[in-house]
Specification:
The complex is a heterotrimer of chains A (507), B (365) and C (307).
Chain A (H helix, E strand, L loop, with lengths): L2 E12 L2 E12 L3 E5 L6 H8 L7 E6 L2 E3 L4 H6 L2 E4 L11 H6 L5 E2 L3 E2 L1 H15 L14 H14 L4 E5 L7 H16 L3 E6 L2 H7 L2 E6 L2 E6 L6 H8 L18 E11 L5 E11 L3 E5 L6 H9 L6 E6 L2 E2 L5 H7 L1 E4 L14 H5 L3 H4 L10 H14 L16 H13 L5 E5 L7 H16 L3 E5 L3 H7 L2 E6 L2 E7 L5 H8 L9
Parallel strand pairs in A: 3-10, 3-11, 6-9, 9-10, 15-20, 15-21, 18-19, 19-20
Antiparallel strand pairs in A: 1-2, 1-4, 4-5, 7-8, 11-12, 13-14, 13-16, 16-17, 21-22
Chain B lengths: L1 H35 L4 H13 L2 H26 L7 H18 L4 H30 L3 H23 L34 H18 L1 H11 L1 H6 L4 H28 L10 H11 L4 H24 L5 H15 L2 H8 L17
Helix pairs in contact in B: 1-13, 2-3, 2-12, 3-7, 3-10, 3-11, 3-12, 4-5, 4-6, 4-10, 4-11, 5-6, 5-10, 7-8, 7-10, 11-12, 12-13
Chain C lengths: L1 H5 L1 H26 L7 H19 L2 H25 L4 H24 L4 E3 L20 H5 L4 H19 L1 H11 L1 H6 L4 H25 L4 E3 L6 H11 L4 H20 L7 H34 L1
Helix pairs in contact in C: 2-7, 2-10, 2-11, 2-12, 3-4, 3-5, 3-10, 3-11, 4-10, 7-8, 11-12, 11-13, 12-13
Classes of the chains: A alpha/beta (507), B mainly alpha (365), C mainly alpha (307).
């Protein structure tokens, strides 16, 4: 067995999270080795270590039989490791050739760029590996699939023997993916080794020579594609012990309160992130939206709340058409939002806690005056929120940035919940939260639904999804693949749907 | 309530130490500069102190200078707090001063009407100058710093031109000698002490600061302005209309700046003379920066600033030191105060700050 | 009067008046490409203007003045760099404070050393000599425009070409362009962005030094209070309009200088000096607006083509 890369006992910790826990993987030369896992499994961290951007806390990296220490991306590059990041490291204003050679330029006359020589070398690479792209056009004019080719050509130009592709298919059309796979097989035939990072099972089964599955920072299995099927893979990827078991009280679910029809939303890059999604949520229901990160959930919620424009489709609430209206309108009608980004969107960490607590409340509820801010009212409200939601604070005047993540989240949750909205959009309410606060927040959500409030819950934690939701819709690549009753599904099925399990996807 | 005081002491303690250290350093530099001028630093500092605070004339003159400092500082605070950098305060002062001077001269009104009307006209002058930069910023995202800076020069030149036109003076006369005709008495602010140049403008300044303080602390709009300035995403998420907020803030800041100019001509000057302002707009900006945009803090700094400014004139009269030493020191003080002291200390003591691991942590995966 | 718009005199004055803008602009665009926003270029110019005058005064040699100017400006840029790059202070605040400090400092020195307020004229201040370019000076019209300037003007013109070559034809320039385009990406390519920020800031200091020297020693042979009079801001605007491309920045500087030159030429006629003096500042605002419109048009067309 000729291993070009050996990772031994790699461990990396951040704050209170162990992103990589004693990971050991052997990668054979001339193969396509996939690493699959769900959100937070540790794939990106591991690859950042291998490509020199992060130092591991423990463990060794062995390249070609020799142990190597990487102190920078350049070190890894010299060792033959090239990484194509999920977010392309490209310069939109520069031409293709400039993008490829930047940092590793060929020089003539000891001072000037030798573009001609560089072009010749790149043309040779393109010929050898069957790439086709123009060299003199600015990067920003090229479509994504071509940009990806350029990224691969870039690492080849730098002399990579091992090419890491981090979620390369996330931005490609089916045709683009076929093209990519063809290129990958070709590269491997030419002697290169590819590490393919993804969360999509179908792809992994189609293209890999070997598959390593990561879950919660650990390796749960290394298999060959002919040894497993999608269900087995899914079970290696998901599933953790259910730590919390919250009893769900009887409640009444009545008519449709909220309805999304044929909604299409574009992301920041101009591509459609939400494709023709339709679903309804009934009053008193907790409707979950499951999916691997970046499959459209963020854009969906932002469009619903009015922080992002939708391109087509309709959103209805309580019979009103609320498509493309702003947050103020949404709040006025009775929709609240607990965002995923609690620091940049959900709060103002520069300001004191009480200013954070009254946001929204000040607009809709402090009605004794339209102009004046009633401080007593504000402080009372803040104290209420703080005590009811168990937020540990030094004082309501301390800056919000002094709060721990969990407490800040409780504050944000508490603020929204205390404002008596009828419909809550909730994103990842317990991400990075300790177990006690998680239990608390879960109880709150269930309690509110029992009182007749309605919840749209987006979560990347399947455990949470199953514990709280009545029904779950799975988003995959921007489409709503299936809506299931929680009572009749489980983690494996959800994980399977989330990673594109073989269901007929309507075109 | 006790909690509030405990927090306040903790936070402010660091700030106070920072300010005191800066003052000490600045005074040291000042002493050196004055010494190099061939003057005794002690004598110079004494002259400043006496000229500014000893005797009724001195105090009156200090008030005269404190007044525009407060108003200009208020204009800067209003815009800074919401994330707009209005560097055109100087020009807006000119516009306000000019229009007020002309209105005060040309439109006879009973005093009760004339005073507020003239002030209003001055404010409008400031707003006019800020309209184009405001529109460019809000609809086209063009950096307002450069545009307002450019309009400073436009305003200075324009008012100079208009003054000369008004007086029918040819292009060959030196601008310093041209001024609008004296304003009518009904437009002049009442002096607080006979002929000592301090006027009721001081109260106007206090009212403006008071209004600003009140706005930010006790009104819903002020709360919203603060949120827009500190985290615009949070503000939008909460349902605040950020767009109209920015526009509002920009123009109010310019309005106040215009009032500053109006009060200057209605008070100490009595007429508009081309190139009259001794960098009052920049004083206001620096005051706001030092006070970290807090209205009450700004008041304190502006009072001190005005006192020092007056003292510097006195120092120049009675010693051989040049008053620009003080101007220089004021600017250097801003440099000191905005440096991150903690970072300096950590680098000196080699206390490691949290070093960021690698360049990109990578998305959760 | 219309002749003034197109006269050789006006064009010649344009080149002369553009020189300080061009020099500061060339230096400043390097720092801009390293994502260092320096609103304090004005202070570099003013400080170097004073010390350049001082150097020439002390030795009657304008080249010594140039040396003094460049050194003082370099020191100012080091101060700026320490505050902004090393200590991470807000570059806008530092820039404003430095501008005011420079004004106070130079005016103070003028008073302290020479006992002068306002303008300082002295026989000992020697400007650079005019140079007649052989051959070119005999070309009709063009010769009048290009020949007869002092060496700093020609340095400015040549610097445009040199800067253009450096930015577009060297690895340093390529990495700088990458930095502006995507600062994160360039770090993964192994570029030390802090080093680049420092280098470009110092470059802007040196160029501003040459530029500031031109103000007193480019023919006026005097120093006036606040001699830089906003030229640093105009240069900054030119950099923004030209998007850091030396040639485009050059054109922008020429446009501003043309407006300035007209004010001199038109003074004989009915148009008041102040109105024309406003021209460069208004031109800046207009140019920023036009450039922004162009950007918007371009991005929407790109977005439409890629989706």
């Amino acid at each position: 067995m000729d291993n070009i890369v050996e990772l031994r006992n790699i461990t990396k910790r951040f704050a209170n999270v162990t992103a990589n826990d004693n990971i050991s993987i052997n990668i054979e030369r001339g193969t396509i080795h996939s690493i699959i896992g769900e959100n937070g499994a540790g794939k990106s961290t591991l690859m950042n270590i291998l490509s020199g951007l992060i130092r591991p806390d423990e463990g060794e990296i062995i390249i070609d039989g020799k142990e190597r220490q990487f102190f920078s991306a350049r070190d890894a590059s010299r060792a033959g490791i090239g990484m194509v990041h999920q977010e392309f490291m490209l310069y939109p204003e520069l031409t293709v050739i400039e993008n490829i050679i930047l940092g590793y330029e060929t020089i003539k006359n000891s001072m000037f760029l030798d573009i001609d020589k560089a072009k010749a070398e790149v043309k040779e690479i393109c010929q050898r590996y069957n790439f086709q792209f123009p060299l003199d056009i600015k990067m920003k004019f090229l479509p994504i699939s071509v940009q990806q080719q350029v990224e691969i050509a870039k690492v080849l130009y730098r002399g990579a023997e091992v090419i890491i592709l981090d979620e390369p298919t996330a931005v490609l059309t089916p045709q683009g993916i076929e093209g990519l796979f063809k290129a990958m097989r070709f590269l491997v035939k030419q002697g290169k080794t590819i590490i393919f990072i993804t969360h999509k099972m179908k792809e992994v089964l189609e293209i890999s020579d070997k598959i390593t599955v990561l879950k919660d920072g650990k390796v749960t299995g290394t298999v060959k594609p002919d040894e497993v099927d999608e269900h087995k893979l899914a079970s290696l990827m998901v599933g953790r012990e259910v730590i919390l078991d919250i009893p769900k009280p009887e409640k009444e679910i009545s008519d449709i309160l909220f309805h999304v029809e044929n909604l299409t939303v574009k992301g920041d890059d101009g591509l459609e992130k939400v494709k023709n999604v339709s679903f309804s949520v009934k009053k008193g229901e907790i409707f979950g939206i499951a999916g691997i990160a970046n499959n459209g959930q963020k854009e969906l919620v932002e469009a619903i709340f009015g922080l992002r424009a939708s391109q087509s489709g309709k959103i209805e609430f309580k019979g009103h058409d609320i498509t493309n209206t702003g947050p103020y309108h949404k709040r006025k009608l009775g929709i609240g939002y607990i965002p995923q980004d609690r620091i940049n969107i959900g709060s103002n960490v520069k300001g004191p806690i009480w200013e954070n607590a009254i946001m929204g409340y000040h607009l809709l509820y402090m009605k004794d005056s339209n102009v004046l801010l009633n401080h007593k009212s504000a402080y009372d409200y803040t104290n209420q929120v703080v005590s009811r939601f168990n937020v540990k604070i030094p004082s309501i005047f301390s800056p919000a940035r002094t709060l721990s993540g969990g407490n800040l989240q409780k504050l944000v949750v508490g603020r929204e919940f205390s404002q008596d909205y009828d419909f809550f959009l909730i994103e990842d309410p317990t991400r990075g939260i300790d177990i006690g606060s998680t239990e608390f927040i879960w109880k709150q959500i269930i309690g509110y639904a029992a009182k007749g409030k309605t919840v749209l819950l987006i979560s990347h934690d399947l455990n949470e999804m199953l514990a709280l939701s009545d029904r779950v819709g799975v988003l995959f690549e921007g489409r709503l693949v299936k809506v299931v009753e929680t009572a009749s599904t489980n983690e494996e099925e959800l994980g399977y749907l989330m990673t594109g399990g073989t269901m007929k996807i309507d075109e | 309530m006790m909690n509030k005081i405990v927090i306040a002491t903790d936070e402010y303690r660091k700030e106070v130490i920072k300010h005191l250290t800066s003052i000490a350093l600045v005074m040291l530099v000042g002493a050196i500069l004055i010494h190099l001028q061939g003057e005794s630093p002690l004598k110079a500092f004494q002259a400043i102190f006496q000229g500014a605070l000893v005797g009724k004339p001195s105090i009156a003159r200090s008030l005269r200078w404190i007044t525009p400092c407060i108003i200009a500082g208020t204009a800067a605070v209003i815009s800074n707090k919401s994330g707009i950098f209005n560097l055109g305060i100087e020009g807006q002062i000119y516009m306000g001063a000019f229009l007020a001077a002309v209105f005060g001269y040309a439109v006879p009104l009973p005093r009760l009407l004339h005073i507020p009307a003239t002030i209003l006209v001055g404010g409008i002058g400031g707003v006019i100058l800020a309209l184009i930069p405001a529109v460019l910023r809000l609809y086209y995202g063009i950096n307002e710093m450069i545009t307002t800076l450019m309009f400073n020069y436009v305003a200075i030149l324009f008012t100079e031109y208009m003054t000369m036109q008004l007086m029918g003076v040819g292009g060959s006369t030196a601008p310093d000698y041209v001024a609008t005709p004296p304003m009518l008495d009904s437009a002049r602010l009442t002096p607080l002490f006979p002929s000592y140049q301090a006027t009721t403008g001081f109260f106007i300044a206090l009212i403006l600061v008071g209004l600003t303080y009140f706005l930010y602390k006790y009104t819903k709009k002020g709360y919203e302005l603060k949120q827009v300035g500190e985290n615009i995403n949070f503000a939008k998420y909460g349902g605040i209309n950020a767009f109209s907020t920015y526009f509002y803030v920009f123009l109010v800041s310019a309005f106040v700046a215009g009032i500053c100019g109006a009060v200057e001509v209605m008070g100490a000057h009595g007429r508009f003379r081309a190139q009259f302002s001794s960098n009052l707009g920049w004083d206001g900006i620096m005051i706001a920066l030092i006070a970290k945009d807090s209205p009450l803090g700004m008041l304190l700094v502006a009072v001190l600033w005005g006192i020092i400014k007056n003292g510097s004139f006195a120092m120049e009269r009675t010693t051989s030191a040049n008053r620009l030493v003080v101007t220089l020191l004021q600017a250097i003080f801003v440099l000191f105060i905005t440096a991150d002291f903690e970072k300096i200390l950590s680098k000196i003591r080699l206390v490691p700050l949290q070093k960021r691991e690698g360049k990109k942590e990578g998305t959760l995966c | 009067m219309l002749k003034t718009f197109f006269s050789a005199l006006t064009f010649s004055a344009t080149i002369r008046l553009a020189t300080p803008l061009i020099l500061t602009g060339m230096g400043g665009l390097f720092a801009d490409r390293a994502n260092v926003f320096n609103i304090g270029l004005e202070s570099f110019m003013l400080i170097s203007a004073f010390f350049a005058m001082l150097g020439s005064y002390l030795t009657t040699n304008p080249f010594i003045g140039l040396l003094f100017g460049m050194t003082s400006s370099l020191i100012a840029s080091i101060i700026f760099g320490i505050l902004v790059i090393y200590l991470n202070s807000n570059p806008i605040v530092v820039g404003i404070a430095m501008n005011l400090s420079a004004w106070g400092f130079t005016t103070l020195l003028l008073d302290t050393i020479f006992n002068i307020r306002g303008a300082f004229i002295d026989n000992r201040i020697k400007s650079f000599q005019s140079i007649e370019l052989p051959i070119i000076k005999d070309i009709p019209f063009v010769g009048d425009i290009l020949s007869g300037h002092n060496v700093l003007v020609y340095i400015a013109l040549i610097s445009v070409i040199i800067c253009h070559i450096v930015i577009f034809k060297t690895p340093f320039g390529l990495r700088l362009r990458g930095l502006k385009s995507n600062e994160t990406a360039v770090q993964t390519a192994g570029v030390n962005t802090i080093k680049y920020k420092w280098i470009t800031t110092l470059i802007s200091g040196i160029f501003a030094g040459i530029s500031g020297t031109f103000l007193p020693l480019g023919g006026l042979s005097m120093f006036t209070e606040n001699m830089s009079a906003g030229k640093g801001f105009l240069a900054l605007a030119a950099i923004m309009i030209g998007n850091g491309n030396p040639f485009k920045v050059f054109i922008a500087c020429l446009i501003f200088a043309y407006a300035d030159a007209l004010s001199v030429g038109l003074q004989g006629f009915e148009i008041p000096s102040q109105i024309v003096l406003m021209a460069p500042y208004l031109a800046t605002v207009i140019a920023l607006f036009v450039e922004r419109l162009r950007e918007i048009r371009l991005t929407t067309s790109v977005k439409n083509s890629s989706s």
